[in-house]
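Please decode residue identities from the backbone states below.
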């Protein structure tokens, strides 16, 4: 497990994210990022939705971000991120979305005004 500090939050992650600032692992954890390699994409989205290049379902409490060649990011309550990778997914593009889009959604869920 890696520990980072970004956006004013302590982030514990199963994935190495060199774009974030490393921090000493503490008991405090504002955000936990896990990778679920056992779940199938179809357990999160319909077969019809999986045919599209991308999909987004967003509320203040829960969000799903689907990218066809990458997988699904599930963001809940501004506290947890679960990445369900597609079979051919590469780590670098996943990090790109985590640092940008996924964290923007997480911050939105925490009540931050997120501007681009």
């Amino acid at each position: 497990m890696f520990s980072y500090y970004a956006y004013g939050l302590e982030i514990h992650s199963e994935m190495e994210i060199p774009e974030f600032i490393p921090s000493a692992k503490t008991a405090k954890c504002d955000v936990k990022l896990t990778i679920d390699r056992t779940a199938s994409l179809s357990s999160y989205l319909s077969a019809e939705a999986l045919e599209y290049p991308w999909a987004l379902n967003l509320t203040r409490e829960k969000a799903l971000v689907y990218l066809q060649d990458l997988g699904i990011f599930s963001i809940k309550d501004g506290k947890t991120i679960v990445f369900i990778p597609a079979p051919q997914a590469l780590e670098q593009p996943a990090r790109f979305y985590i640092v940008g889009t996924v964290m923007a959604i997480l911050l939105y869920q925490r009540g931050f005004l997120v501007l681009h």
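Observation: Residues 59 and 109 are 8 Å apart (CA to CA).
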